[in-house]
Design goal:
Blueprint (H helix, E strand, L loop, with lengths): L1 E6 L7 H9 L4 E8 L6 E9 L2 H11 L3 E2 L2 E2 L1 E4 L27
Antiparallel strand pairs: 1-3, 1-6, 2-3, 4-5
């Protein structure tokens, strides 16, 4: 089982159109288009879960960069989701003027 990221999709793309694009390369287990939480509109990317890793690799090689609906697709193996609360973004300790506190 391999999860594939598909980016730069047309906002008119559907799960069915994405499924049929990938089924040309092998068995598709699941397709999900990511939508905006507030508006429900597509955000231009999604994920395709393929049963066979070799078939997924072939789909990635063939579809990455392919133009669909006037947009060049960005297709690669999905990276595991990182925990948003571990590091990055928010810094505790407040203030400062951009200088390091450590002075050597």
């Amino acid at each position: 089982m391999k999860n594939v990221f598909v980016g730069n999709l047309s906002f008119g793309a559907t799960e069915d159109s994405l499924r049929s694009m990938f089924e040309a390369y092998g068995a598709v287990e699941r397709v999900s288009l990511v939508t905006d939480r507030d508006t429900g509109r597509a955000r231009g990317f999604g994920f395709v879960e393929m049963t066979n890793g070799a078939e997924a690799d072939r789909a990635i090689a063939e579809l990455n960069g392919r133009e669909v609906d006037g947009r060049a697709l960005n297709v690669n193996e999905a990276r595991p989701k990182t925990d948003r609360n571990s590091g990055g973004g928010y810094r505790a300790g407040g203030g400062g003027n951009g200088r390091s506190r450590n002075r050597w």
